[in-house]
Each structure stands twice: as C-alpha cells, then as structure tokens.
Amino acid sequence: MNMLLQYLITSFISIIHPFFVSVIDVNHNAKEKSLEISVRIFTDDLETVLKNQTHTSVDLTKATDKAKNDKLIAEYIHNKMQFKIDGKAIQLNYIGYEIQSESSWCYFEVINIPSFKKLDVNCNLLYEWQAQQMNIFHVKENGVEKSYKLDNPKTQAVFDF
Predict the structure, then answer these.
(1) What is the structure's pLDDT at 10?
(2) Averaged pLDDT for residues 17-23
(3) Which string of DSSP letters, residue by residue, matches the chain?
(4) pTM of the model
(5) Is residue 134 a part of any domain in this protein?
(6) Domain span at residue 50?
(7) Is residue 8 part of a domain?
(8) What average pLDDT score do residues 28-54 get?
(9) What is d(CA 103, CA 40) in angstroms, rounded to the nearest whole number?
(10) 95 in a domain, yes or no?
(11) Cα separations (Å) of 115 from 27, 53, 68, 110?
(12) Quick one: pLDDT at residue 19?
C-alpha cells in the first residue's frame, strides 16, 4: 500500500510540475543470501548523463547497442552509488537493464549476504544533471521495509534493522 501511494503521488506531481526522481529498491533475499537491487531512472535522463559523460550518442532502446549500453550503465551507477553492509563496502554485480515505458530498470545483485543489521548508502545518481534530482530508496530486510529520500546535494543515508 505504501509503495502504491508513493507511486500515485509521484505520478500526480509529474503532471503538475516536471520532476527528477530515481527509485532504488534493495531487497534482501534470505533464501538466496543475496541483495537484489533495482534502479529505476527515466530513460531520457539516463541517456543524457551517459551522453554527457562519454561525449558519444547513447540510445538505450537500440538492441544493437546493448553491450555498449550495459558497459556505460554499469560504470555510471558503480561510480554514483555505493553500499556498505554492517560497515563493510560491497561490490554491486551488474545484471542488466530493460526499458519499461519511460523508465530504464537497471539490475544489480550482491551475493553471500546471509543477513544484515545496517546498510549505509552513498548515492548521487543524476546530481550532475539536475539540481532538483531526488533518489528514493526502499530497503527491505527480514520482512521490514524502510524508505528514505535523498535530495540533491545530500548523498548519505543509513538504514538500521
């Protein structure tokens, strides 16, 4: 219910006023002992930052550019978003991306995470593109979900479970 309400509010705001938001879902899969991370970014915004970073054309919808796009997305997000679990830095393993409507969903995984008590986030996705950028995090561990919104220029969030 909480996520549905957030989606409806976000959709309503976008009709009234342009906004710049990314949504990052972090789900701990206890059975697989992994973190499953999805990053939802508006495709046109992601293409713009990748173009500005590489000074080349970027079209995330072209299947022929998939390998190039995977590399660009993985590098960009690795540079802009880092996590620590219980004080220890973790490496995000890039899985891939897909386009749904106006959004790009970028997927990552971290294996060998039996559980955790604290997740530290350092994130500045798209901050170089829009001063109004916000990054919304939803973190789920052991059936408990916590959310937090980082507004540019704020980059740090901590989730305690």
Answers:
(1) 55
(2) 79
(3) -HHHHHHHHHHHHHHHS---EEEEEEEEETTTTEEEEEEEEEHHHHHHHHHHHHSS---TT-GGGHHHHHHHHHHHHHHHEEEEETTEEEPPEEEEEEEETTEEEEEEEEE-----SEEEEEE-TTTTT-TT-EEEEEEEETTEEEEEEEETT--EEEEE-
(4) 0.86
(5) yes
(6) 20-160
(7) no
(8) 96
(9) 6
(10) yes
(11) 11, 36, 34, 12
(12) 72
What is the percent of the chain where pLDDT is above 90? 83
How far is 72 from 79, CA to CA, in rounded Å? 11
| pLDDT tens figures, 98-121 | 999 899 999 999 999 999 999 999
- Per DSSP bridges, beta strands 81-85 and 88-90 are antiparallel
pLDDT recorded at residue 63: 82
Q: Is the Cβ–Cβ distance between 161 and 116 less than 8 Å?
A: yes
Domain count, the chain: 1
- Region of 131 (left: φ > 0; alpha: ψ -120 to 50; beta: rest) is alpha
Rounded Cα distance between 29 and 120, Å, is 18
Position 13 in a domain = no
Task: Please tell me the predicted confidence (pLDDT) of residue 36.
Answer: 98
